[in-house]
């Protein structure tokens, strides 16, 4: 397992190294603007399976990704007016969007992406992080990166690499690269909003209150 201690001087080189690991099908433990995450190629069946095995995650439970911007998200999801409004009016990184996956008649007959985190489901969940390393990573990789929290399913996420590795136990051996940014500050997780149907649904209330979500949508209506 390779370990890189992240600081202001090596952010770009660390992101480049992490992207190289992702291109090779590997899994990276990396810091985000909420928790440490498990990063893999979000469109690769094999890479996503590795993440689920490390987490001991139920095969049917969806995993979301980080993207660099709405432009990248639009390659894989049907962007809605509500999604654009929320991205414009609410703080970056604090909302996870669930949208209908691109494909079918709604996309002019384009072939739907049905691999990785979109395998067996009709939605694409993503977040645009407010974190320099995350943005550098996803821009270098040029594809969505899984952003599921680095913890065993059913266990609380830890905020330091040492505690995360201890929680994973022998599963930590499946990590190819660790980007260590020290202990992360306590923050709320993102608010998850499902915009894949006509009526938005708040799946999880987190950093953004439900009231702020509804207000942002109403203001733009």
TrEMBL record:
Record keywords: ATP-binding, Cytoplasm, Nucleotide-binding, Nucleotidyltransferase, Transferase, tRNA processing
GO molecular function: ATP binding; double-stranded RNA binding; L-threonylcarbamoyladenylate synthase; tRNA binding
A Gene Ontology cellular-component term: cytoplasm
Top-level EC class: transferase
tRNA processing in keyword set: yes
Matching PROSITE patterns: YRDC
Coiled coil: none
Gene3D superfamilies named among the record's database cross-references: DHBP synthase
A biological process term (GO) from this entry: tRNA processing
Domain YrdC-like: 12-208
Catalysed reaction equations from the record: L-threonine + hydrogencarbonate + ATP = L-threonylcarbamoyladenylate + diphosphate + H2O
Location of the protein in the cell: Cytoplasm
Xref: InterPro entries: DHBP_synth_RibB-like_a/b_dom, Sua5-like_dom, TC-AMP_synthase_SUA5
EC annotation from Swiss-Prot or TrEMBL: 2.7.7.87
Alphabetized Pfam families for the sequence: Sua5_yciO_yrdC
Family: Belongs to the SUA5 family.
Protein name, per record: L-threonylcarbamoyladenylate synthase
Record organism: Candidatus Kaiserbacteria bacterium RIFCSPHIGHO2_02_FULL_55_20
Organism taxonomic ancestry: Bacteria, Candidatus Kaiseribacteriota
